[in-house]
Design brief:
Helices cover about 30% and strands about 20% of the residues. It is of the alpha/beta class. The chain folds into three domains: about 230 residues, Glycosidases (TIM Barrel, Alpha-Beta Barrel); about 210 residues, Class I glutamine amidotransferase (GATase) domain (Rossmann fold); about 40 residues, no CATH class. The strands form five sheets. The protein has a ten-stranded mixed sheet, sandwiched between helices. Strand 18 and strand 19 form a beta hairpin. The protein is globular and about 75 Å long.
Length: about 675
C-alpha cells in the first residue's frame, strides 16, 4: 500500500480510542452496537494495555483481545491496533528500575503514571520489541486490522532523560554527528568559559548546573532526544513492516509540540495523525486549531491525514475544564476535514469511571446516550458517512509559513536578546491570513518554495546557508518574501551568523541591522510581572499603528522604508522595509505590527503576490477553506450569519457548517 493511497481505501474514518479492558465483557457487545449506531468504522485498540497483554514477564494473555478484535470485525468496525508500549507495566519497572527516566535535576521518576521509561534504555527497547513481535505474529493477518498505531504521543511527558544510559547514548550520537572531539569543541564554542573537551567521555547531558549552560550543547541534546524517541519508533516499525508490509503504520503527533521535531519524523509514518484539544473558552482557538491542522497536513506533504484524538466535550487537565457548547465539536471536526483530514477520531470511546482521566469526556459519556454529546456523535457520524467523495482530496495553498524546530529550540533558550515565544509569533501572522480566509501551508528551511506566491518567515532564528540561499533564490525568481525580526541570527551550530545579523539575507532584504532594541519594562525578576512598553510605527503605506515585542536599529540600504518607528530612542529608524530583488520583492519587519499595521502590511504583500482569500468579503468568525471540489464554511460564532460564497448567499446557524460542492459534485450538508 502506498502512502498516497493509505487513507483513500474507505470512507472517512470515524471512531476513537477503545479501551475495553477497563470494562466487563458484558459491555463489549453493547459497545459494538452503539458504534454501529454512531457510524463508527475505526477503533483504536490497546494503547495502554501492556499490563493486560503481558501480566508477567514473558507470559502473554491474548484471549481477551482476540474476542475484542473478533467482535469489532463482526460489527463492521476496523481496528487501528496499538503496540501498547507507551506505558510499561509494574512488573517491568519493579524488576528493572534502571529503565525509569531521570530528570535534569537527577531525580529518578517513579511508576504510577505513564511514559515512565528512558527512551535510550536497551532493556525497555528489548521488552517493547518482544511485545510488538508477539502482537504482529498474532494479529498481522486478522481481518479487522486496518492500521498499526505505534506507542502513543511520543515525548508528551518524558521527552528527555538525563540518566547515565542516556549520557552514553548522547556521546555515541555526538561521535556520529561530529566525528572528533575537536570538531565538537568548534561547534559548541567551548573556548568560552573553559569548556574544551579532550575526550567524548567527558561530555554529559546538560544536567542542572550553576548558571547558563552551553547553548549548543542544549540544542544538540534536544536534537538527540528527538532522535532517540524516533529510534524507539523505528524499532517497532521495522518489526511491523517485516511482518505486515501491506499494513500502514502511524503514531500520533501533537501539533506544535516543542520536544519532538516532526519534520524529521513525518517521513517515517505512512499516515500523519495528530491529537488536538483546543480550549472551548479561548476565542482564539478556532484560528489556532486551524493553524495546527495546516501544520499537520504540511508535515505529510499535503497528503490527507487523521485526527487521531480530540475531546467530544471537556478535557480534565486544564485548571478550568470548559465543556464544548452545542455545535462546537461538530464545527471543529469539519474544520479538520476541510483542512485535509480523512479521519476524525476521539479520545476516547467510553468515558472512564476510574483513573486519572475519568473526567475527560468520551463519545459515550457517563450520563449515557440521552445526552447532547451522544446526539452530536451520532449526527456527525451520519454526516461524515455521506462525504466519501472527498476522501483523498487535497487542500490548495498559495502562501507558506516557514517553521523550524531548531529555531524554536534556540530562540527560547536562556540568555537570548528577548522573550520571543516562537509559536505565538508565527500565530500572529497566521491569524491575519486566517481572518482573510487565505489558506497556508507550512514549510521547513530548504524546502522547494516555487509553488507559493508568498512566503512568510517569522523569526527563523537559526538558518544555514541552504535556507538563506533558498529564500534569496525564491525572491529572485519572482516570489514575494516577508521576513521578520530575529531571523538568520545564528548558524546551525548556534554561532552568530558570519558577516553580521541576517547573514546573506541582508542583501536579499536590502537592510543591515546595527543593534537590537526590544521594548522592555522594569526588571521582571525583581519587580514581578510588568507590562512591556508598546511602540508606534507609521509610514507611506501603513497607517499609524501600535507595535510590540521587538525593535532594532535598522539601516535601509537598497530597501524602501514603508514604515518607521515614531517616538522614543528608535524615532525615525526603519521599522518595515520593502526591497526589489530581481523579479521578486522582499519585505522586512523589524517589529510586530499591531492589527492596523499587520493588515496594511499583508495587504501590500498579498496584493503584490496576487493572493486572494476563499471569500471576497470575509465575515468575522467565519472560516472558509477549499478542499478539492468543495468549499467549507464554518461559523464559529454564536450568531446566525450570511456569507457570500461561490456565487450564492449561505445562511449559517450558530456554529453551523456548510459544504458547497463545485464542479458538478453533490454537497452533503
Amino acid at each position: 500500500m502506498t502512502k498516497e493511497s493509505a487513507v483513500s481505501i474507505m470512507p472517512i474514518w470515524y471512531g476513537g480510542d477503545y479501551n475495553p479492558e477497563q470494562w466487563p465483557e458484558a459491555v463489549w457487545a453493547e459497545d459494538v452496537q452503539l458504534m454501529q449506531r454512531a457510524g463508527v468504522n475505526l477503533a483504536t485498540v490497546g494503547v495502554f494495555s501492556w499490563a493486560r497483554l503481558e501480566p508477567r514477564e514473558g507470559e502473554f494473555d491474548f484471549g481477551w483481545l482476540d474476542r475484542v478484535m473478533d467482535g469489532l470485525h463482526a460489527g463492521g468496525v476496523r481496528v487501528d491496533l496499538a503496540t501498547a508500549t507507551a506505558s510499561p507495566p509494574p512488573w517491568l519497572t519493579h524488576r528493572y528500575p534502571e529503565v525509569l527516566p531521570v530528570t535534569e535535576d537527577g531525580v529518578r521518576l517513579s511508576p504510577g503514571s505513564r511514559q515512565h521509561y528512558c527512551p535510550s534504555s536497551p532493556i525497555y527497547r528489548r521488552l517493547a520489541a518482544r511485545l510488538v513481535e508477539a502482537l504482529a505474529e498474532r494479529y498481522g493477518s486478522h481481518p479487522a486490522l486496518e492500521l498499526w498505531h505505534i506507542n502513543n504521543e511520543y515525548g508528551c511527558h518524558v521527552s528527555r532523560c538525563y540518566c547515565d544510559v542516556s549520557a552514553e547514548a548522547f556521546r555515541s550520537w555526538l561521535k556520529r554527528r561530529y566525528g572528533t572531539v575537536e570538531t565538537l569543541n568548534e561547534a559548541w564554542g567551548t573556548t568560552f568559559w573553559s569548556q574544551q573537551y579532550s575526550d567524548f567521555a567527558e561530555v554529559y547531558p546538560p544536567r542542572a548546573a550553576p548558571t547558563f549552560k552551553n547553548p549548543t550543547q542544549k540544542l544538540d541534546f534536544r536534537r538527540f532526544s528527538s532522535d532517540e524517541l524516533l529510534e524507539c519508533y523505528r524499532m517497532e516499525k521495522s518489526i511491523l513492516r517485516k511482518a505486515t508490509p501491506e499494513v500502514p503504520v502511524t503514531t500520533n503527533f501533537m501539533g506544535f509540540f516543542k520536544n519532538v521535531d516532526y519534520w524529521t519524523w513525518s517521513s517515517e509514518v505512512d499516515v500523519v495523525s495528530d491529537d488536538s484539544y483546543p480550549d472551548p473558552a479561548d476565542p482564539d482557538s478556532p484560528a489556532y486549531a486551524a493553524m495546527v491542522r495546516d501544520l499537520v497536513r504540511s508535515l505529510g506533504g499535503g497528503r490527507p491525514w487523521i485526527l487521531m484524538e480530540q475531546a467530544p466535550s471537556a478535557v480534565n487537565w486544564r485548571r478550568r475544564n470548559a465543556a464544548k457548547p452545542a455545535g462546537m465539536n461538530r464545527a471543529y471536526s469539519y474544520q479538520c476535514v476541510s483542512r485535509g483530514a480523512d479521519g476524525v477520531m476521539y479520545f476516547q470511546w467510553r468515558q472512564s469511571v476510574a483513573g486519572a482521566e475519568k473526567f475527560h469526556s468520551g463519545m459515550v459519556p457517563h450520563s449515557g446516550t440521552d445526552t447532547k454529546t451522544w446526539r452530536e456523535i451520532e449526527q456527525l457520524g451520519a454526516e461524515l458517512g455521506q462525504l466519501e467523495a472527498i476522501v483523498g482530496a487535497r487542500v490548495p495553498a498559495d502562501v507558506a509559513i516557514m517553521f523550524d524546530w531548531d529555531s524554536w529550540w534556540s530562540i527560547e533558550q536562556d540568555a537570548t536578546p528577548g522573550d520571543i515565544r516562537y509559536v505565538e509569533h508565527a500565530f500572529a501572522w497566521y491569524r491575519e491570513l486566517y481572518r482573510r480566509t487565505v489558506t497556508a501551508d507550512f514549510v521547513r528551511p530548504g524546502d522547494d518554495l516555487s509553488r507559493y506566491r508568498a512566503v512568510i518567515v517569522p523569526s527563523l532564528f537559526m538558518a544555514g546557508k541552504e535556507a538563506i540561499t533558498g529564500l534569496d533564490e525564491y525572491a529572485r525568481q519572482g516570489g514575494r518574501l516577508l521576513v521578520t525580526f530575529q531571523s538568520a541570527i545564528l548558524d546551525p551550530h548556534g554561532h552568530i551568523t558570519f558577516g553580521g545579523y541576517l547573514g546573506g539575507l541582508a542583501e536579499t532584504l536590502g537592510v543591515r541591522i546595527e543593534e537590537f532594541a526590544p521594548p522592555a519594562g522594569p526588571d521582571l525578576e525583581r519587580n514581578g510581572q510588568a507590562d512591556v512598553p508598546t511602540l508606534r510605527i507609521e509610514g507611506s503605506l501603513l497607517p499609524s499603528s501600535s507595535a510590540s515585542l521587538w525593535g532594532e536599529y535598522v539601516h535601509a540600504g537598497s530597501a524602501e522604508v514603508i514604515a518607521s518607528f515614531v517616538g522614543g530612542e528608535l524615532d525615525g529608524w526603519p521599522a518595515i522595509t520593502r526591497n526589489s530583488r530581481d523579479a521578486g520583492r522582499a519585505w522586512y519587519a523589524a517589529t510586530l505590527p499591531g492589527p492596523e499595521g499587520m493588515k496594511a502590511l499583508l495587504d501590500d504583500v498579498l496584493t503584490d503576490a496576487e493572493v486572494q482569500g476563499v471569500l471576497a468579503e470575509p465575515v468575522p468568525n467565519v472560516e472558509a477553506v477549499r478542499r478539492g471540489s468543495w468549499t467549507f464554511l464554518l461559523n464559529h460564532s454564536v450568531q446566525e450569519v450570511s456569507v457570500q460564497a461561490e456565487g450564492t448567499t449561505h445562511v449559517l446557524q450558530p456554529r453551523g457548517v456548510a459544504v458547497i460542492a463545485l464542479a458538478g459534485q453533490q454537497g452533503a450538508v
